[in-house]
Specification:
It contains four helices and five strands; from the N terminus they run ααββββααβ. By secondary structure, it is of the alpha+beta class. Strands 1, 2, 3, 4 and 5 form a five-stranded mixed beta sheet that branches. A hairpin with a 7-residue loop joins strand 3 and strand 4. The longest helix is centred in the N-terminal third of the chain and has 22 residues. The radius of gyration is 19 Å and the shape is globular.
């Protein structure tokens, strides 16, 4: 291969890497929202949203049926769009919930779900976190999924982009007192 072709190949690779980093945007780990999302507001509502996701997931996994696994759900949300108007917050989020248990020094992945949701929250000084979820919408399975996403999310957002599993794995390892290098196995 000639030097000119190597240069072209390297330049193309550089463009792809830069484009990928740009597309992921700030907050690709879910800790912060997409570019343009109010980080202060996201920091306030994210824990409330994630607690709701965990509560909604309970009872839906195999691991919970096996007491020896001590399984529980861990959820992460990533803001795709966030808007506050007249005391009501509309949060369009990508979600990832995984059910983890533990056995013989290994983290067990027992179940999971991911996908877009639209949640509405209202300020509530008596609620944990100062907000409460007043509604949550999910797309239908199968037919109608794409239309629902198009109707509820801006085309520029990636509603189906889920937060990375590594954050949930690390949180689960810490919760169960496992070392950072504990293997992950299926239930």
């Amino acid at each position: 291969m000639t030097v000119g072709r190597w240069g072209t190949g390297l330049a193309a690779t550089g463009v792809l890497v830069v484009t990928g980093v740009w597309a992921m945007g700030p907050g690709a780990d879910g800790a912060r929202g997409r570019a343009g999302v109010d980080e202060r507001l996201w920091g306030a509502v994210r824990p409330v949203i994630e607690a709701r996701l965990v509560a909604d997931s309970r009872g839906g996994g195999y691991g919970e049926a096996v007491p020896g696994f001590r399984a529980r759900w861990f959820c992460r949300a990533q803001a795709q769009d966030l808007e506050e108007r007249d005391g009501l917050v509309r949060a369009g989020v990508s979600t990832l919930c995984l059910e983890y248990g533990v056995r013989a020094g290994a983290l067990l992945e027992c179940g999971g779900a991911q996908g877009p949701q639209v949640l509405r929250l209202r300020r509530d000084t008596g609620a944990a976190g100062g907000y409460r979820v007043v509604s949550a919408q999910r797309p239908p399975d199968g037919a109608g999924y794409a239309q629902w996403v198009d109707a509820h999310f801006d085309r520029e957002t990636a509603a189906d982009d889920s937060p990375p599993t590594s954050t949930l794995e690390a949180t689960a390892r810490t919760h169960f007192g496992l070392p950072a290098n504990a293997p992950v196995r299926p239930c």
